[in-house]
């Protein structure tokens, strides 16, 4: 039994808790922040500007500062414990001004967040005296300059965030970090750490560090000693993206971190294979995208069973995707976009139950689509949200299972080799936002069920072989559709003239729909549409006035007529493009706004000069990037106003009637990539100023009247040149060996000029005609990309190439064309043996020169040669047998040389035209003569040979020449010795001259008189 005078311990504990709680509640009801801390906060406020009224609740009339916005106090002591004054609103300025040291009176402050504001000056050094701080966040707070070392005095700090998206902060050393040894989270992203060469050793002194973010800090590859990396094994989150690491040698310590969960090394310059990683890894997130990795996908990735996110996009990874990907049962994102992976996509990838995003875009993957995605698991169909397989070599058909995804939002199969029909049940994909099937070989009709995709925003089906009629039903429920691209099919649009579409389009491409007229419903889109393509539609009309306000307009290859108005309006700083080629526009060139970036007016009937267009002073400079005015009726000279157009990358004004010289201001176009001035009346020398255009990849000045020498600077300064066409001018002099510096050259045409001397021996340096290119390479090289003031842009190139005795226009496969043409000059010497090293050369023309010597034996190594013309030279000897094995050769002309012997026997050569061998001493097919002993071998037109090989005709001419020489010597000798004979001879000649002169004059006088009588 319990004694009344001795209560039990349990009862005493209950009484204590009751008493403590009562006292606490009583105390808390009366607690307020200390007056000194209230005054400190008010002083802090008064030193700042607060346009967003973040501190509007801070006023002296409120006794308790613990009730102010952003102020949190300790619930027992009342001391200010936390200040949360961050500005989350990106549209507001937040707090600005200088920080007041009155904060030092907040001696119990443990948490300070001032992120997202706009403070002035440097981070105040007094902040290191807030000794109790455990959390400090000054990210994007407007500070600049060097981070003070005093931050290292905050020994209790657990979290330090100094991220600076404005990139105004830097450090001169990180040694001060050793003072915050309890640190668990550190974020110094965008802080300039370029002066730090021991950041790993410093980080190693933070044994409790769990999270480290040093994104975009200008860190480089300084390798630490692995012996020192022992204290940061707790690290779980590591972000080193956007730095300047070039080698994994400086980062091998990372792959010894056994607790690493998150790894981001993206946007560096890392090369080679990724080092092996510990088998005990706990990795869940790996991002090593945008580097220069050139190995296979690392095997260890396939055995990180907790892996959820993998991104290796934009590298040079090769090989195949391993079936071991089946081990990644937790994987929800696999991004291998833009690599060089080949082979088939493993079937097991379509059985991963947590996969949400699969992006294998821009690789070399092949195989039947149905082999991988013809038997997808139910959980895969349930989980997948984004499937991107575009720009590969996938073939086959889409199966009906593609209509069974439950949550698919993006389906991108564009730019493959897919065929067959589009499955009707795609209309069941109710979550689908983007459907991209462009540039394939799909046939049949466009399913009407597409009109049921009420969440669809992007529909891209251009450049297929679809046919049939498209009606209102195809768009019935597409209320969210904003991008519709369907050019390049055989579709026909048939809708009611009064039809009002349910959508408001931003982009519409209806090229090649044979519309004939502009659809009336299109006017309902004029408030939203920014990109409109009605090319190849046979529309004969004046352009509606509201079309000229569309920022991106393509009306090319129609029959639009009338004058083009000045394009002087623009929507803010948004760039504009205007493609109006191959129509019937007339009048003068329009003036353009500074926002117009792409202008193609080629193949119209525009006339007049270019001064008003180029020299318009409305704007100081213009933003035009692409200018195409070819095949018009422009006249006059080029004005010297190109300094107003510094952004130009592409100029094509070929096939006009422009004369004069190239103005010197052309040299100010330092970003120029392509220059076409062909088929005009330009004269003078190629100006030296053009050598400042060092980025040029193409120059075509053919069919003009340029004279002077080939400038050596073209080879020494314009070293990226791929195409150089100068044919049909009046250029002369020797071809300098400096031209051999053009390693990327793939087309060189100097034909029909007056060059003399020998062909440079160093032509083997044209490695652009040595490296093999495939259609896959063409996919990435057929357009030239460049950064402009308006972002990443591209342009498709074309060129007129003289080969096989004709001139051909190449555009879609231009990057695969390789050609050297030096014909119709005065070149002498032999054919350099180095030419035969150009094993990928497609066409070689050296005809119409004075070349001597033998045809090089190594010519048989030029396996890709399709056209060879060595005619009208002085080559001798036999035709090399190697020519007979050139399986690609389909044009050969060796006529009018001094070649002898039998034509090598091959099916290839026997099928050639016999005219390609005449004018030589050759026999055998395709010539009509055989090579038997009694056969007559046709030789040059000025020679005849008998069947025995000894020429009687040659002996006749030899004796005839000797007799003529002896007779002439006798006559001349006699006249020199006998003076009387000499005088009689010249008197005879004078008398004969007088008679002939009188006879001719009389006859001429009579003829003139007769003509005069007839015409009177």
TrEMBL record:
Q: Where in the cell is it found?
A: Cell membrane
* Entry membrane topology: Single-pass type I membrane protein
Q: Which UniProt keywords apply?
A: Cell membrane, Glycoprotein, Leucine-rich repeat, Membrane, Receptor, Repeat, Signal, Transmembrane, Transmembrane helix
Could you mention a single GO BP entry for this protein? defense response
Fetch the InterPro entries from UniProt.
Answer: Leu-rich_rpt, Leu-rich_rpt_typical-subtyp, LRR_dom_sf, LRR_N_plant-typ, LRR_R13L4/SHOC2-like, RLP23-like
What does UniProt give as GO cellular component? Answer: plasma membrane
Q: Where is the Leucine-rich repeat-containing N-terminal plant-type domain?
A: 35-73
The keyword Membrane belongs to this UniProt entry's keyword annotation: yes
**TM region(s), chain numbering:** 955-977
Leader sequence range is 1-26
| Full protein name | Uncharacterized protein
Classification from the root reads:
Eukaryota, Viridiplantae, Streptophyta, Embryophyta, Tracheophyta
